[in-house]
Amino acid sequence: MDMTDPSRDDCPEEFNLTRRKLMVGGALFAGGMLLSPEISAQTLGAVAPEVSSNFMDVSSLLIDHHLDPEVGARMAAAMLRINPEIAQDIGAIIDIAKKKNARIVEDFFADIPEGRLKDTALAIISAWYTGVVENSANAEVFAFETALMYQPTHDVMTIPTYAISGPNGWNAEAPALGDMPTF
After folding, report:
1. Backbone phi, then psi, for 134, in 5-degree steps?
2. What DSSP character marks residue 141?
3. Could you tell me if 133 and 83 are in contact, meaning their C-beta atoms sit under 8 angstroms apart?
4. 181 or 164: whose pLDDT is higher?
5. What is the pLDDT of residue 33?
6. Is the pLDDT of residue 38 over 60?
7. pLDDT score recorded for residue 61
8. Does residue 80 have a pLDDT over 80?
9. At what angle do helices 86-99 and 116-130 cross, to 10 degrees?
10. Does this model's pTM top 0.70?
11. CB-based contact 148:72 (threshold 8 Å)
């Protein structure tokens, strides 16, 4: 057989992936994902607007940084899945802050009672700083590049990653090359 023959295929038949097989497999996968009862709006990160709004309100009281509302909505949905009572806890924390006319966390944090409410407040703070809502080996990461624990030193330290220039470094503009010497 000629080595330049376009019909030559050294791949075993069970590993041969034709365009038709790829299209049919992709269509079946996509259809299965759309019809799956396991995937709900909450699984995809959607959460009731009032819960998301309250989560961002309490987050901005607890943390004096610019917070991404999209990340906050995903965090709120994940925290709600883990702890369905968190919506009531968030409301209670906001009520405490309003009674104290709080603008920053120092104005009202000491008034949050020990127990579930204090644990919820600390969990929200932890989620924004670490980028995850639970401490487990398979925890979903919500904010790696924008996790608040990396922000104080972002101008002098690279966020830990395999890319030399930091997360999403592949889409950063490459530095200009200097003038090449002539010999």
Report:
1. -140, 155
2. B
3. no
4. 181
5. 58
6. no
7. 92
8. yes
9. 100
10. no
11. no
Contact between 94 and 146 under an 8 Å Cβ cutoff? The reply is no
Q: What region does 24 belong to: left with phi over 0, alpha with psi -120 to 50, or beta?
A: alpha
The pair of structure tokens assigned to 144 is 């790696």
Environment class of 127 (CB within 10 Å of its CB; exposed 0-12, middle 13-18, buried 19+): buried
CA angle centred on 57, ends 55 and 59, rounded to 5°? 65
Q: Does position 9 have pLDDT exceeding 60, yes or no?
A: no
60 in the Ramachandran plot: left (φ > 0), alpha (ψ -120 to 50) or beta?
alpha
For CA atoms 39, 40, 43, 45, the dihedral sign is positive
Q: Give the Cα separation of 124 and 58 in Å (integer).
A: 9
Tokens (6 digits) for 118: 């204090």
DSSP states of 120-142 as a string? HHHHHHHHHHHSBSS-STTPPBS
- The two tokens of residue 116 are 């579930």
> What does the alpha-carbon distance between residue 34 and residue 40 come to, in Å, rounded to a whole number?
10
Position 98 pLDDT exceeds 60 = yes
Angle between helices 116-130 and 49-62 (to 10 degrees): 80
Choice between 11 and 146, residue whose per-residue pLDDT is larger: 146
What distance in Å separates the CA atoms of residue 159 and residue 154, rounded to the nearest whole number? 7
